[in-house]
Amino acid sequence: MRAHIPFNKPCIVGSELIYVGQAVAGGHASGDGPFTKRAQKLMEDRFDAKRVLLTTSCTSALEMAALLCDLGPGDEVIMPSYTFVSTANAVALRGAKPVFVDIRVDTLNIDERLIEAAITPRTRAIFPVHYAGVACEMDEIMAIARRHDLLVVEDAAQGVFAKYNDRYLGTIGHLGCYSFHETKNFGCGEGGALVINDPQLEKRAEILREKGTNRSQFLRGDVDKYTWMDVGSSYVPSDMLAAFLLGQLENMEKITARRGEIYAQYARMLAPLDEARTIQIPSVPQHCTTNYHMFHLLAADIDERTALIGHLRQAGILAVFHYVPLHSSPFARQMELPQSSLQVTDDMSSRLLRLPMYFDLRDHEVTEVANCVLSFYRDKDSK
Ligand SMILES: *Cc1c(COP(=O)(O)O)cnc(C)c1O
Asked: Does the 16-249 domain belong in CATH 3.40.640.10?
């Protein structure tokens, strides 16, 4: 049966298509054109970020961050196993090792209380991941990093426009990485950004992003020719993508407000199941402002989750789970990483289910999805 409620759908909320037309008509469709500058400036102003550079994806932003941390063979980077593969791949590409630390039961973020025990003389950096747009405990993580002289790279792929206390995610560590993939809150199909909070890293970041050349300085008129300065790659997105993205970024409040309504409606309708301890629905700590990136629930076990996914699918509703924890993947096993117990990660990842969440999801559809979850548990009880 074809799903009539997909899991995700990209949206157009403002001037996206007009801007794309202007980017082409203006004669500068390659990278670092007027729309790239506007999108970067908008984020710098809104997030109070020192410097934001658009990239082709969050994956490329993470790769740039790994290069800026000067990671090499033998180096170790602390991160959760419960994350998307790009967080770890950025490190593995440099020949360094991800060291996985377990997560908290409340936010599913890296458990900051376990970080210090994972630090060795080879540790170079911590890559916290803000799961679902809810912040990691950044004060503690930054304090640990200061004590051990480590760099902090925030994987804020899911955390654009979310806050920890009064600071925007991505602007707290030395570097922050955003995603504008179509499955994220604000998107341009494929895209990302590197947030540079440590000014010492800015000049090299520009070079890495421009294929290892000082082209950015040349275009600003700082130097009179441009040449090969360092390693690098093609991390600059087309201005057409930046144009689409600008249309989305100009509507961050509108998009977030709608996602918040959807989140609240799911939470209200599923609260009885949570109160009965049949399922668990997410909770956001007081000092965190979420961007409502996802609404997820925890089933009792993997079999119940599988049955619930099937029940929803029968009704034409697509719900998905993630992640297969990285420590249990074939590639991580082959790397022979230091072993530690990742009990919470194993448990949560086998029970978590994400419900459809996108700007154009209508109220009656949210009701339909929540009712379908409720009917699954009603049928289960009466069996
Ligand atoms: C989506 C995501 C990424 C990758 O983002 P891309 O822009 O698709 O490269 C990395 N980390 C996390 C936590 C993500 O959710």
From this structure: yes
